[in-house]
Each structure stands twice: as structure tokens, then as C-alpha cells.
Write a structure and sequence with these properties.
The complex is a heterodimer of chains A (133) and B (295). Chain A has 133 residues and is α+β, with helices and mostly antiparallel strands. Helices cover 26% and strands 46% of the residues of chain A. The radius of gyration of chain A is 16 Å and the shape is elongated. Chain A starts with a strand and ends with a helix. By secondary structure, chain B is an alpha/beta fold. In chain B, α1 packs antiparallel against α5. Chain B is elongated, with a radius of gyration of 29 Å. Chain B is built from five helices and six strands; from the N terminus they run αβαβαβαβββα. The chains are: A alpha+beta (133), B alpha/beta (295). Chains A and B meet through β5 and β6 of A and α1, α4, β6 and α5 of B. β5 of chain A pairs parallel with β6 of chain B, so a sheet runs across the interface.
């Protein structure tokens, strides 16, 4: 397969995407990274955000929440705990959970961390969802 | 001589029971296939995590993480028991509970305090019957445990372990070996003895220099990989338990159906005999009556 990369998106529950692609963009912990053909071998830690997979001019968009990416010999494995199609995000649900998280007054450090986490997660989700239109 | 009508009623009720057990067997078979598919899907994830761990190890990074360190003494241990929410699955829950009780006695001797947590209504009922107190229970795990739910439970354990409120976590569950073999096992998940599955690591490949670039750094990836590895292990326990439960139910219902068929055969025979002897008795009476009239 000249000029193509094999991209796999796996979660513990199922393989969400498994096909050849031209270009893949993954959300790293400190910003996005683009992976094209013949990318150097890499293992990276993912943050919350959008995975964009470009296949024959068309794009597939997924929301992922943490995990890893492994690139080796034109094989891209995105390994994440939670992945969903960007079009499947329900804006109303995310907004509700965002409001719920914002209204919580954390008392312990753990609660504080959980709050920050939910907020970043929800905001990232909303950002991905806002591109749906 | 048994009453023919009573026998017929019994035969009818056995037939009904047979229908139910047969249906339950079919349902268990369908659910087993689903659970099996989920378990297979999870291995894709596990293998890739293992791959990353192996590559990390090859990069010469010293693998050290609080979750991997053994504590000198176990002050507080936790025992998590995975049972089913529903019964009618043969010895499935009994076996798990037996292993759990054994390990519990062991742990109580070796560690200061023991915290017993149970998933599944059957396990709760079984322990209550044995007079054992349970500190925490989960009953929302059905035959399709989701990763999000398991990871919530896992996070609880991770936080407690890192905070030092627990020093050890053991899980009792039914391990799926093959379709014809499942056994109840006790596994120590915390401290993690190894990240990734040892059996799956590819020793056959010649060890080569790691060619990977680690972004942002091997250490940061390790920080994330170790908790993920624990979560995946716990998730695998739940999946195995779910698959084994369906197999156990399938087998139990299959033998129940077979027993019902046997019983129906037996009852039919008795019923026919009773009916025949009733008819013979009536004919004898009539003949006796006719002879008396003629005589």
C-alpha cells in the first residue's frame, strides 16, 4: 500500500476504526500532532480531543479521552479508554455535565481534580462537537 | 396404585419447566457469544498496551512506579469478589465464594485489616448466609460490564492504594480458560507484579534497540501506562467472569433440560401403566356385573 498508512483506533470494548488512511491527526497531551506516510516511529501520550483521519479526501472525526498513540512502519495505533464518533456527541448532555461539574464546590483535592478533569473533558468534547455543523 | 390424573398433572408441570430451562439455555448461549465477542475485542487493546510496555522496557528506562512497588507489610488488604447477579448457573457462585472465604481467612492472618467488597447479588446473599460482613457492594454489573464502569471502580482502588489506605488488592473471579474449562482463581492486582501480560510478551523477537521517539517523555508515558494496565487487568477479570457465568448457566440449564426429558419419560410410563390398570379394573367390574346378571 504505497502512500497509505494503516490506522487502528482501539478501546477496551471494541475496535472503533480499522482502515487505511492518508493522514492522521491525534491530540497529544501538549497539542496536536499530524502523522503522514513514513512518519518516524513514535509512542506518544494523548490528551482529550479530536482524532482526524483523512481517507481519500474525506475526513473521519473521533473524540478520544486520553490514551496512547504508537506509530511504527506506517501503522498508527490509537489506544484509548474512550472513543466516539464526533457526530455522536450530544451537546445537551455534555453541557449538562459541564454545568453540573462547575456548580460543585470541591472540598478535598481529589474532588478538585475530578472537577477540573470533567470540565476539561466536557470543554474538549464541546469543541469537537462545535465543528459538526 | 398411583392416581392417573395426578401423574398427568405432574408430567404437564415438568413439561413446562423443561420449556423454561430450554429457553434459558438458548438465551445463555446467545449471551455467551456476545460476552465472548467483547472479551475478544478487549484483547486487541491489551496486546497493544503490552506492546507499548515492551517497547518502553527496551528503551532502557528503569520501570518504577508506586503501583509496582511491594509494600513491606500489608496493613490493610482488600478482597474483591466477582459473582453473578442471577442464580441458576450451577456451581459458578459457590466455587467463587469458596475460594473467597479461603483467601479471606488467609489475608486476615497476614494483614492487619481486611476490607471485603463484592460484586453481584448472589455473592452478597452467599456471604450473608455464611455470616460474613461485606463493606462495599456493586450490583450494577450485568453480563456486559462497560469499561467506564469498571474504570470508575478501578480509580477508587488506585486512589486508595496511592494514598496508602490499602496495601494490597486481591480479586476472586472465575477465569475463562476455554469453552470447556473455567476455574475460580484469586489474583493479586495491587501491587502490580508486572505491567502487561507476561504470556503475551514476544520473547521470540530478537531484542533490538528501541527506535521509538517518546512524546513527551518515556517517564510521562509510564505514568499513564501503569494505571491503564491495572484498569485493563481489572476489566479483563470482569469480562472473564461474565463469559464464565454464561457458560456455567448454559451447562446448568442443559443438564436441567436433559433431566426434565428423563423425568417426562418416566412419568409417561407410570401414567400409562396407571391408566391401563384403571381400564382393566373397570372391565373386570363390568364382566363381573354381567356374569352376576346371567347367573
Amino acid at each position: 500500500m504505497a502512500g497509505k498508512i494503516h490506522c487502528v483506533l482501539v478501546t477496551p470494548e471494541k475496535t472503533t476504526f480499522d482502515a487505511a488512511a492518508d493522514f492522521v491527526v491525534v491530540p497529544m497531551i501538549d497539542g496536536e500532532a499530524g502523522i503522514g506516510v513514513d512518519h518516524a516511529p513514535m509512542i506518544g501520550r494523548l490528551g482529550c480531543g479530536e482524532v482526524r483521519i483523512k481517507v481519500d479526501g474525506k475526513g473521519e472525526r473521533f473524540f478520544v479521552d486520553g490514551g496512547f498513540v504508537q506509530v511504527d512502519q506506517n501503522e498508527v495505533s490509537v489506544i484509548t479508554g474512550n472513543a466516539m464518533l464526533a457526530s455522536d456527541i450530544s451537546v445537551a448532555d455534555v453541557e449538562a455535565s459541564l454545568h453540573a461539574a462547575e456548580s460543585v464546590k470541591p472540598e478535598t483535592t481529589e474532588e478538585k481534580l475530578a472537577k477540573v478533569r470533567t470540565i476539561t473533558q466536557s470543554k474538549a468534547m464541546l469543541k469537537v462537537a462545535s465543528k459538526n455543523k | 396404585m398411583a392416581n392417573a390424573r395426578a401423574l398427568d398433572n405432574r408430567r404437564k408441570s415438568v413439561k413446562n419447566i423443561k420449556k423454561i430451562t430450554r429457553t434459558m439455555e438458548l438465551i445463555a448461549t446467545a449471551r455467551f457469544k456476545q460476552a465472548m465477542d467483547r472479551a475478544t475485542a478487549a484483547t486487541g487493546y491489551t496486546q497493544r498496551i503490552t506492546q507499548i510496555v515492551n517497547d518502553l522496557a527496551k528503551s532502557g528506562l528503569e520501570v518504577s512506579h508506586p503501583l509496582l512497588e511491594k509494600r513491606e507489610e500489608t496493613k490493610a488488604a482488600t478482597l474483591l469478589v466477582l459473582t453473578s447477579n442471577r442464580g441458576l448457573c450451577g456451581g459458578y457462585n459457590g466455587n467463587v465464594l469458596r475460594s473467597a472465604v479461603d483467601r479471606k481467612t488467609e489475608l486476615e492472618k497476614s494483614s492487619g485489616s481486611l476490607d471485603l467488597q463484592v460484586s453481584g447479588k448472589r455473592g452478597l446473599a452467599g456471604l450473608k448466609f455464611r455470616g460474613i460482613e461485606v463493606s462495599n457492594s456493586y450490583t450494577h454489573f450485568e453480563d456486559k460490564p462497560s469499561f467506564a464502569e469498571v474504570s470508575e471502580v478501578a480509580n477508587g482502588f488506585l486512589d486508595a492504594y496511592i494514598a496508602g489506605t490499602i496495601d494490597r488488592l486481591d480479586v476472586v473471579y472465575t477465569q475463562f480458560v476455554s469453552v470447556s474449562k473455567q476455574r475460580s482463581v484469586v489474583e493479586t492486582l495491587l501491587p502490580l507484579d508486572s505491567i502487561g501480560d507476561v504470556s503475551e510478551s514476544d520473547d521470540s523477537k530478537p531484542t533490538q534497540e528501541s527506535v521509538y521517539e517518546f512524546v513527551p517523555s518515556p517517564k510521562s508515558i509510564l505514568e499513564e501506562v501503569v494505571p491503564t494496565s491495572f484498569k485493563v487487568k481489572l476489566f479483563k477479570c470482569f469480562l472473564d467472569a461474565a463469559v464464565s457465568e454464561q457458560i456455567a448457566r448454559m451447562i446448568a440449564m442443559k443438564s436441567a433440560t436433559e433431566n426434565a426429558s428423563e423425568m417426562i419419560k418416566q412419568l409417561s410410563m407410570e401414567y400409562n401403566r396407571a391408566r391401563q390398570s384403571q381400564i382393566t379394573g373397570e372391565i373386570m367390574e363390568i364382566i363381573g356385573g354381567v356374569e352376576a346378571l346371567e347367573g
